[in-house]
Amino acid sequence: MTIIPAIVFLVLEPYNKMPLVKFHSIQCLLLAGVSLVLQVGLTILAIFRHFIPLIGILFSMIHLLVFLGIFTAWLMAIIKASKGEWYKLP
């Protein structure tokens, strides 16, 4: 997931005045922030719990599920934005 286009659209003059573009750019930045916090938090927890084998595998599975959930939300947001629809992520 990249945040560079979202930042560009928020900075450039003709795009930052369009409500739909502004909405989806801000939503992209928020999703990237939530993703970063979740992935770093899960990685830190996995490192601390890695010494117990079964819990390490459990955290790997949770990490994968969180990644797939974020990827799915990102893909849905891209599809809705490309169609010009207002779609607020939960």
Question: Can you describe what's shown?
Answer:
This protein is mainly α and 90 residues long. It has four helices and no strands. The longest helix has 31 residues. The protein is elongated and about 55 Å long. The relative contact order is 0.13. The model has no long low-confidence stretch (mean pLDDT 84).
Mean pLDDT: 84
Quote the beta fraction: under 5%
**Helical content class:** over 70%
What about the largest sheet? Answer: none
Distance between the termini: 18 Å
In short:
The chain has 90 residues and is mainly α.
Comma- or semicolon-separated keywords:
90 residues; 4 helices; elongated; single chain; mainly alpha
Question: Topology of this protein?
Answer:
Layout: H1 4-11, H2 13-16, H3 19-49, H4 53-82
